[in-house]
UniProtKB/TrEMBL annotation:
It comes from Caldisalinibacter kiritimatiensis. This is Putative transcriptional regulator. InterPro entries: Cro/C1-type_HTH. It comes from the Bacteria.
Amino acid sequence: MDTEKVFNKESFALLLDKAKGDRSINQYANETGVSAAHISRFLREMIDSPPTPETISKFAKYAANGVSYRDLMIAAGYISEDSMKNEDSPRNRRILVEEMEQKFLQVILADLYNKDFKWTIQKPEGRMRFPDMIIDIDHDGYKKWYIEFRVSLNSSRIHPSIMFIHHLYGQISMMELLPTDKFTIAVNDEKVYKHIFKRPPVSLRANLYVMLISLEKGKILQEEKLCDYYK
């Protein structure tokens, strides 16, 4: 934790309430996977220690009103504005990735809200789960949709290599996917999108897609299928 900052219960409660938005505490708890009682105690300033970065990540991913992971981390006292100036530090890069993953989720949710089929997001089970989103759907023959975020920072000079893609394919191959499951790799860099699209897996038994998201425009630009479960 930044030694120059401490946990300010009042400031954090105000920001968390802003992140909750118009939803009830129970609705926000259901989306984030954090108990309603725990959220309520933070809102009522009853807890003297800040939530863990993992819990903050859950708050941020479903935050309303533009509240970001960085905002909540600063309010919790883990970082300061000045400490974020060095974008190349491992901690700051993790924070930036968390922010961008939050934007990925918001773009995908905004797109889903405009769809005419039924869908429900499964509760998150922790910061390190794979993949990043699991959605129950009823569309185009699919019943479940898995989405893995692969963030590219603006300052990143390294794009995913063949080894990176093969590792990801290996993770997917260990899942017990069904013909009614859809798996999408979501990226925000066109070079990465083309890199993945040009290297489809040869023998992966999955309905696998790659999706290009524009965070600047806040929309999904395109999604293409890489391989089919039955081929």
